[in-house]
Amino acid sequence: MIQTVLFVNILSSQLLMLPSAVHSLSASCQEDVSLPCPVVGSDFVSVTWYKQRIEQHKRGILRWSSKDKSTPEFFKSNRSVHYDQDYSLLISAVTPTDSGTYECEVGARVGGRNKKVEVKLDVSACVTPAVRTPVTPVPNTTSDLCRLQVQELPVLWSAVVYGTVGLAKIVLSIIIVLMIRCVQIKASKRRQQKWGSR
After folding, report:
1. Number of domains comprising the chain
2. Where does the chain cross the membrane (predicted)?
3. Inside any domain, residue 64
4. Distance of alpha carbon 195 from alpha carbon 175, whole angstroms
5. What is the pLDDT of residues 141-196, one digit of tens each?
6. Angstrom distance (rounded) from CA 61 to CA 50
């Protein structure tokens, strides 16, 4: 009896093995991509989309149940995804971080076979278009200087200005010398008065 149970378990596990197919898909940056799951039939328990991570760990993205085929369940994810009626996974505006292997697992009813499809998505690098800056002409300073007309003051005006400045300096010097002389004379008289009063 135990041998029969073991034989049935081994046989049922071989029947429920997931046959898998691998598809490759290339996409350009910022393109909308639809990942198909062609193995879905009408008789299933669930359809689940996963993204493979490092060390073959999988992260759930989206899951349909046979009880409510119209509204799938979204797993907690950093990436916003959508779904289509044919159980495709729609990823909008893909970037290189969306590259990787995605799996569509179809859970069969009792007595059926589970199925799995892998889709390898390769997204090209995003290239930002070069921004053209307008070129502003640099003025040619040598030719601009040649165009300037130098206006010279007449010699008479120069003589008058320099003469006036020179005369003002002489007058101020004489006034300062006279003031110093006056201060010295007053100081001298005070000293004489002090000595005379003693």
Report:
1. 2
2. 155-180
3. yes
4. 30
5. 655 555 555 566 677 888 888 899 999 999 999 999 999 999 999 988 888 887 77
6. 5
